[in-house]
Amino acid sequence: MQSVRPDGSWPFAGRRMTAFSDEEERQAGLADKAPWLLESRLHELGGKLETAPPWTPHVVTDGNLVTGQNPQSSARTAQELVQSLLAV
Fold first, then answer.
1. 1 contact partners, CB below 8 Å, separation of at least 6
2. N or C end of the chain, less CB within 10 A?
3. What phi and psi, each to the nearest 5 degrees, are found at residue 3?
């Protein structure tokens, strides 16, 4: 993940978000195959990661950024996204 800003900063630094957790990566058998783990990488870049226990639905909305942790979060993530679009 590289910066898209001219000053070199990551556009999502300081934003609240969720993503597939490192523990979910391990439990799924994917951690050993990945060059980096998403949760750790987003933390390194300055994201404010909020995760729930593995495989539970979890959605985080920060302004216009709507993120879901895992496949179990997809329906709630879609609902939050639709609500945020309707509010515009």
1. 10, 41, 45
2. C
3. -70, 150
Residue type, 3: S
Write down the pTM of the prediction: 0.88
* Contact yes or no for 53/59 (Cβ under 8 A): no
Predicted confidence at residue 1, as pLDDT, reads 54
For 55, the token pair is 């495989």
Task: Using alpha carbons, select from 38, 56, 59 the residue that is nearest to residue 47.
Answer: 38
Q: What is the pLDDT of residues 65-84, one digit of tens each?
A: 999 999 999 999 999 999 99
For residue 8, pLDDT over 90 is answered with no
Task: Over range 15-38, report the average pLDDT.
Answer: 96
**HSE-up of residue 31 (Cα within 13 Å, Cβ side):** 12
Pairwise CA distance, residues 26 & 21, whole Å: 9
User: Which structure tokens are listed for 69?
Assistant: 């942790």
